[in-house]
Amino acid sequence: MSAVEATAPVVRKTALNAVHRQMGAKMVDFNGWDMPVEYPASIGGGIINEHIAVRTGVGIFDVSHMGDIRLAGPQALAAVQHISMNDASRLAIGQAQYSALLYPQGTFVDDVIVHRLGEDEYLLVINAGTREKDFNWVRDNTRQFDCAVENLSDDFTQIAIQGPKAVDTLQKLTDSDLNAVKFYWVTHGTVCGLKNILIARTGYTAEDGFEIYIPSDEATGARVWNEILRAGKDFGIVPCGLGARNTLRLEGKLPLYGHEISDTINVWEAGLDRFCKMEKPEFVGREALEKAKSAAPRHTLVGLEMIDRGIARDGYKVLDLNGRAIGYVTSGSPAPFLKKNIALAYVPPENATLGSTVNVEIRGQAVAARIVSTPFYKKPKKNSLN
Amino acid sequence: MGYPADRKYTKQHEWIQANGTTATVGITDHAQEELGDIVFVDLPKVGAEITAGKTFGSVESVKAVSDLYAPASGTVTETNDDLATSPEKVNKDAHSSWMMKIALKNQSELDALLSAADYEKFVAEEGGH
Predict the structure, then answer these.
(1) Which of A66, A78, A109, A176 is the most buried (most CB within 10 A)?
(2) Overall pTM surpassing 0.90 (yes/no)
(3) Range 37-66 of A in CB contact (< 8 A) with B
(4) What ipTM did this prediction achieve?
């Protein structure tokens, strides 16, 4: 087995790869990773079913392709503050925040979730496609700080349990009181008999849910995956692939690197102002963003809802009503829960008025779309203690 | 999966069932399986001329758009309007969820297409089911 692994081509596999194949998942190459895009209808899968399961019950995702960088040491906070746009000094131990790593010009290296795990210990969770780039960038930009930077990307199998029934599902498998863990907080507990497991109430679905970080060997991954499926059975749990992960995040307007954010798009254009703390005196990209703030942005991210029949797809042109190209679609898809065809697009600010109509060019035809407020979907507010 | 022997198949995964000088066209079960949840079927207008091997429409799943290729040349005489409101029927039964009917220009064009057995072999070799 290991000899085969060693000589295999560069396609990377998570520890759950064999499990996905056994379940009959349709596999795709995602940024060099052999990942499930959807599971067969015979076990409740298919992008639409998987998406609906997460909105109404619970679904599980293998997200082990995500990368993890640990920063620890006396100046860990100073280092994190220097390389990320949100204000990590506001994090209590056990708290997490959405943030981004920026280039000096205020554009994106990547978006990240920053977790504060200890007094001087932080964990950045980064995208699969940017793992090496991010780690090198973080290491190079934190050399002046007294803090160790470790790439823990291959140390974990990361499983996301997402949906309104995620808490009930995972609670069956852990001694931690999950109701005491607020959204964007973490805890450590025993999960499926594994001690001291990081449990984060985070996700990429615009739904309540958890991400757990377990040891990366295949046997442990398969055991925990199957135990979660059993625990969620009564709630109609479905294994979910990257297809549903994309439609879920799109309904919630969660950005995807290479689409809504990239090395050519800055924070203001992407509309991520509330995660960028300009009151911080210094961070990489701040100066450029200060300047960009006073200039008129060339384009801004808007939500589109198709009026006419047709689905806007990534890269399609946005036209004004005179047929002039004014922008482009960054992500577009049918929205399985909302039952509409939606998209995110960059257009000039003068064309971004809510309620106004633009056209999307679909195979040579101008198809009408309305500019709508975002996110398209917001999870219902709960009356519980969360 | 057994493919009905009463029709011919293309390597682009369409089927065509001839009845004299007219024919019915759809996509194969393998195609719907590969596409996943079908949410949109874009078909030509009645009266449109289509050419063998050229695109005549498209089918969209949640994640992607795929072109439809005409198995034979002819004139579109009817399209399956049912698929405008219920495209998922193609997932449920691809071999009975026809897309369009055409008046064939040249019946002999069908001779070059794959038989059910050959198509099944082709799919197996492609790494399909």
Answers:
(1) A109
(2) yes
(3) 37-38, 41, 46-48
(4) 0.88
